[in-house]
């Protein structure tokens, strides 16, 4: 076999080996990177939950409260402005969450999410009794963030698909709302911070690293088998009959 023919036989084998190493190396790198990303997200969630647990207790703060702060408000409900957050579920039941504006003793307005009100599948307009007079409320503060996508109008009748402070027209003291936990007008608490537990992120990280390890093993075993293959230079040439 001529040298040029030997080189031409080597090229496909070399291309296969390069492709093999390149493909599996990318999978290993991807698994390692995604595992590290999930590990960092777990650390971020632990920090966030720690901040929530250490959030301060504030009474009608003039400045915007930090997320998760426990607020104490004294004033009166504006019952006529109550709207209902639609399509809530709690312990297997379907219902709504009453949203009632609240005016504190300084005249500032706050939005109060009062808890879960079971309605069942009916689409009749919900109603609720609201305490009158001056009351004291306590609950957790949630700042308004990125809005979830909507499929259709947000405000239908006295129902909202998502909380939107502009639905009330008049402004509020701060951009956010109070999840009521104690005080007159409180219903069943249902809200929890929408946070994926850190343990789940750690599980995802281990899964990605397991994938990276499996890809590494396959890459090395396959490369070893390829190395055992016949060398084109060692294949005897056959002379064509004259």
TrEMBL record:
This is SURF1-like protein. Pfam families: SURF1. Keywords: Cell membrane, Membrane, Transmembrane, Transmembrane helix. The chain crosses the membrane at residues 21-39, 206-223. It comes from Halomonas aestuarii. Its main location: membrane. It is a multi-pass membrane protein. It is found in: Cell membrane. PROSITE patterns: SURF1. It comes from the Bacteria. Belongs to the SURF1 family.
